[in-house]
Amino acid sequence: MADHFISLNRGESGFVQTDFTTGTSSTTADGIELRIKDGAGWTKNDAVNALKAFQRFLETAPWVAAAGIDVKL
User: Fold this and answer.
1) Backbone phi, then psi, for 16, in 5-degree steps?
2) Which among 28, 40, 44, 46 has most CB atoms closer than 10 A?
3) pLDDT by residue (tens digit) across 11-23?
4) Whole-model pTM over 0.85
């Protein structure tokens, strides 16, 4: 089984499908990507909840700093 990736480059709004790159191979061209493991049984609701959790993580400066993630706050 393959994992599937959805990626988005900085400056893209994500309001049209062509803003995204999708496939079974990770891309180095885009700045951020989501990997969904095939066969793991995730539902759309599971994925949306996980994305909301990632948003909370990124909005919590001490967590971002502790993780060493290079995003400007």
Assistant:
1) -130, 150
2) 46
3) 999 999 999 999 9
4) no
